[in-house]
Amino acid sequence: MNTLSYKEYQASVEFDDGTLFVKVLHLDDLLIGECDAARDASKVLEDLVEAYLADCAEAGREPSKPFKGSFNVRIPPELH
C-alpha cells in the first residue's frame, strides 16, 4: 500500500482490477476516489479533501480530524 498526504490528511492508494483507489485514512467519514493513472492520485486526494471540507462547512459541522498518533497524559507535578 502506498500513501499520500494533503493538509494533514493521509490516504492509501491501492490498485484493483485496473483502477487506482484513493482512500482517506483515519477519519470517521468515508472518502474514496478513483483514477486510472498514478500521476493523478495526488489530485484525486486534493479534490476529495477540499470537497469534504467544503461539504462540512456548508452543513455547518466540524470536519473529522485525522489521528495524530500522539497520546497525552496529564500527571500531577509530584510525579514529574
What would you note in describing this structure?
The chain is an alpha+beta fold. It has one helix spanning 41-59; strands at 2-6, 9-16, 19-24, 32-35. The longest helix has 19 residues, at 41-59. The chain is flat.
Q: Nutshell version of this structure?
A:
The chain has 80 residues and is α+β, with helices and mostly antiparallel strands.
Distance between the amino and carboxyl termini: 41 Å
What is the N-to-C succession of helices and strands? Answer: EEEEH
Q: Point out poorly predicted stretches.
A: none
User: Considering DSSP H and I runs of 4 or more, what fraction of the residues is helical?
Assistant: 10-25%
Number of domains: 1
User: Main beta sheet: strand number and arrangement?
Assistant: 4 strands, antiparallel
- Mass-distribution shape: flat
- Please tally the helical runs, counting DSSP H or I stretches of 4 or more residues: 1
Taking all Cα atoms into account, the compactness measure Rg is: 17 Å
Number of strand elements: 4
Question: On the 0-100 scale, what is the average pLDDT?
Answer: 88
Class per helix and strand makeup: alpha+beta
Which secondary structure elements does this structure contain, and how are they paired or packed?
Blueprint: E1 2-6, E2 9-16, E3 19-24, E4 32-35, H1 41-59
Antiparallel strand pairs: 1-2, 2-3, 3-4
